[in-house]
Design brief:
single chain, 404 residues, mainly beta, Methylamine Dehydrogenase, Chain H, four-stranded antiparallel β-sheet
Length: 404
Amino acid sequence: MMGRGRTRGRHRATLGAFALAAVLVPASGCGSPVEFYKPGGGGADDPVVGLGGAAPYVPPRTGRPRAADPPGTVPVAPAGGRVYAATGPGMIAPGARGVPARLYVADGRGIEVIDPRTLRLTGRFGAGTAVSRVVPSWDMRRLWTVDAVRDVLVPVGARTGRQGRPVPAVDPAALYFTPDGRAALVVAGRPRRLEVRDPRSMRPMASVPLPCAAADGDFTLDGGHLVLSCTSAGSLVRVDVPGRRVAGTVRLPAGARPGDVRLSPDGGTFLVADAAKGGVWAVDARTFATGGFVRTAPGARGLAISRDARRLFVTGGGTLFAVDFRARRVTARWPLPGGGDALPGGVTSDGRALWLADPGGLVYAVSTRTGRVLRRARLRGRPAGLCVHPQPGRYSLGGTGLYR
């Protein structure tokens, strides 16, 4: 059965706000010649031996989670230049250990909180608000909801679910955190700018004017630049974060409508989903030049990376595509329920499933090996965003499932 962590009974309270249908599919496992948890098999708060790849898990020495590393003390670039070396199965950061695994679904009327194991509603907050995104903070101890209708950012405790005081933010389209954890970056659509803020209080510190309306993005390997996509302008913009300036732009071929952005595992290429052209552009991270195109299907918009960092998952046109990073070709294509335009929320900690949200009112998990639907939940609202929390990684960069 997907997800072998210990069941937490105290999180099974049902609020009965919507009807849920669950389909549970057992997954086979294999034995081990030594006694240790298989990758992804330990609990969410079980530490790993190393961060270089799949590793055995050892029982925790104490029931209390270790404190998270403070901002500025975690190396930005992973060892050996492997971007996702610390996001493998079960590699939950110390600050997020003990945080219950939850699905946070922004449905246009608030945030539904769902237990991914039981598919039961465990909470709801922000009722009556039009939240479009739920973003984990850099240390993953809190969540930030992005509400462009009320022009606010609202903090929520990841363990308690308690909301903090709303912070004013004009037309926020997205929220990011610098890899060193020292700044939050709010992408504003009106006026077009990137606001640099204190990552805890969200107090404004600086502002960078943008040449186009941006939203989705990712950071370079060294963390010094944030690359954002401008859908309506058909271009990408590169922001020098320490220098507080736009360092360059690149216009994609005529008719392009870039969306989600992900950095390749070697840090050399940005992969950019294009709904209009129906595929993924490869843009050189150093020269900022377009270097190829992988065709998937019209409507390609959402991107997610497998736990072994070998495949890029692309959603669009009612289909989930798996693209091999090294070969840059589609290796699998799986139809999605109802052919809907699904939004990726994140890969599970063990890497076995990818959670997706369909704006038609469905949240479901598909196998990252076969594409088969493993679990599904029907909602009353229309999901506009999905966040799976916590996920493996040393820290969160915000956005939609950006971790390092």
